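Two quick folds needed for the group meeting slides. Do the first one here.
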Amino acid sequence: MTNNLQFDLVSPEKKLFSAPVAMVTLPGTEGDFGVLPGHAPFISTMRVGIIDVYETDNTVSRRMLVTGGIVEVNPDSCTVLAEEATPLEDVSVESLGVEHTKLTERLAVADAEAKVALREQVAISEKKLELLRFLRYQH
């Protein structure tokens, strides 16, 4: 077993991160989980949450807000295909609040067909806001 795990984070637009890491924690749909080198292989879906990247033991070097996706874990690698991922330092409660307000306003005037997709976007926006508010009050 090696001391590092190859971690790749990919969004539909681009590869956001690729490097050997000591550990990564991910927001699985059934709960958060950590991946270390030598982990048993599996595939999981992800929910809205935070990915913590530990490039060295016990030190979070990067935090990413994701809206969901799929993760494939192997003993020597972990690959995340994220629906959307943003570095946590690039997101604020205020900017998410503005995004949520705009989505809610669009939902109020949308036709029936558009409402289906907009309801999902509003729900994701609410989850991101809730998570960021929680993180803000933790510190």
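Then this one, please, same format:
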Amino acid sequence: SRVWFHAVSVGEFNVLLPLLNQFRKSYPQYKIFISTTTATGQELAKTKTAGFAEVFYFPFDLPWITAAYLDLISPSLVGIVETEIWPGFVKQCQSLNIPCIIVNGRLSPKSAAGYLRWRVLFGPVFRNFAALAVQSENEKNRFEAVAGQALSARTTVCGNIKLDGLQAISEEEKVTLRKSLNIEESDFVIVAGSTHEGEESAFLRISSELRCKLIIAPRHPERFERVAQIIQSEDRQARRYSATGRFESNKDVYLLDTIGQLNAFYSLASVAFVGGTLANIGGHNLAEPCIYKVPVLCGPHIHKAKDLFQKLNERNAIKQGFDVEELSKIVASLKFSPEERSCTGENGYRFIQDSQGAVARTMAVLEQYLPMGDRATEKAVSNPVNMIGMSERAISSEITRDQMSGAGVGGR
């Protein structure tokens, strides 16, 4: 028996991982296949699932290519993380009676407005899914607005798997990490995570004005060198994770130039800024620092994480600044008011604790579509990488992997 999960990149794979672990525990007889679209997603998936899953790039969304993959893998079920819509692939699954299910489904207000304008096209695409396990009632309403009430009976509000997947490192690991970076317990530390262009400069300025330590974790690996140059241009010294760097002077900035480590580094934060919110991206995982009782900061652009922002805001667990000056004032307030800092962090932590259970609810949805026996026809699938090479050559040797990665319709 086989299942196929698709997680487009690093963020989606991190969402998928706790569900994968539970699926393995509940159904050890199933062979797991995982596809990603980005190179960083591939790297992380291979690292985290070594020994129990086959990892490969998602195929170009053409019927003869997707049909070949589905024939070779013969999955009993396909799960697509969040909302990465591949119309041809989903239709192919339906025609082959392979249940295709959205897990941790989300549809931001901005994306929903776009789909609504073209609901004649996208309504049927959404209706091709066997089921949707979505994050919130708001998401359910947005999907139904596009696809109609016919989707209602197949849509379940399961909560956000990101919140189930948040696990703190141990106190011993935290102490070891802090010492390795030469950070004292009394130091005020800003961790700026998942940053984009302009956000690093903003927090270089804020950390300089408030004389505190700064750790920067760029969202995309291809920007590591760029961010190092930005740090140097501000007459600061970049101490890099890749070079086993540590704080040595007041001018030092720690650059987390790797993937998969941000969660641990949030444990060092006095306050944490979540990127993609000062830059007009829409926001990343606003709740991640909360597992360490760390106050969360964000900018004005939270349209991709609006529902989560609203829930944190209702709990007084997040601080929003609309520009650099306002964010600087918020950081200063938190620095000089330990009581406010502690209260905000505690509120976020309680929100995480109250929001558990999404993995179990999502598993209940998946289980409705798993066969009691092995429905898939056993075929030899020696190496998905070879499958990819064969399929790509069948299309054209001139099609690059980047072109292949752009064939879907995102639901961000």
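Slide caption for protein two: Confidence is low (pLDDT under 50) at residues 374-412.
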